[in-house]
Amino acid sequence: MAFKHWPVVRDLRFAQKCGRYLRGARKRRPDLDWDEFRRIARHFKQDDMGSFPERGYLFQLASDTPENAQVVEVGSWMGASTCFLAGGLRGDRARVLAVDNFQGLSTCGEDTVWYNRHFQRLGARTTLEIFRENFAALGFTPRSEPVVSDSLAAAQALAARRGSIDLVFIDGDHAYAACKADIEAWAPFVKPGGVIAFHDFGSRADGVTRAIFEEIKAGRFAEIIGVAGTIIAFRM
Ligand SMILES: C[S@@+](CC[C@H](N)C(=O)[O-])C[C@H]1O[C@@H](n2cnc3c(N)ncnc32)[C@H](O)[C@@H]1O
Hints:
The chain is of the alpha/beta class. The protein has helices spanning 7-28, 34-43, 52-63, 80-88, 109-122, 127-137, 151-157, 176-186, 206-217; strands at 70-74, 95-100, 144-148, 165-170, 190-198, 223-228, 231-235. It is built from 9 helices and 7 strands, in the order αααβαβααβαβαβαββ. Helix 2 (34-43) runs antiparallel to helix 4 (80-88) and helix 7 (151-157) runs parallel beside helix 8 (176-186). The N and C termini lie far apart (46 Å). It binds S-adenosylmethionine.
């Protein structure tokens, strides 16, 4: 086992990095429940899908939604980003619809290699099972609705909910054509004044960057409201 994965080293690194992030976050947004953020971060301290600024920004975006907000996430994997979104929500009727095929299927070659490596380590367990375990462990089960489906098929099936979603977060297939199709399919779900956010803008996934950049130039979004790591968020 690599030195950085030793439990004691991992815990120390987590405490240092999370503490450093939280000192800044508490100053920037003293109104948010950063103890809740830390509780979720501690649960996911082995997760490698996002940085503290990115996870913190998702938590902030969800915290800024109105009470009983409805959120759609495209690409949930094992539910880490989903839990940071769920943790920021308020109200008994607040929900995150977590859309994922839960099979690591993607048209993006680099992603597929990465998912396959992870699936080998999971053995017989599925990402959907682990997603559910994570939600249960944090007490968020009532706030989640896993939608086990291809993204575009889910957008068709949920068409009645167009114009009713407060926050859409897209982190699914990172190929250019797939990201374009996701924007086309999911942007109409966001209510006027609601938010759409993307992971991997400006990352190695250059298809995502190109697709979003084209949509900015075409005037798809009303304004950019924030960037954190490779997350970029827009008001519709
Ligand atoms: C990068 S992972 C998501 C990571 C997660 N948002 C996080 O930060 O913890 C991308 C996920 O998108 C899913 N996915 C890829 N293409 C998809 C598609 N067309 N429809 C549904 N899910 C898809 C994959 O199965 C994978 O679980």
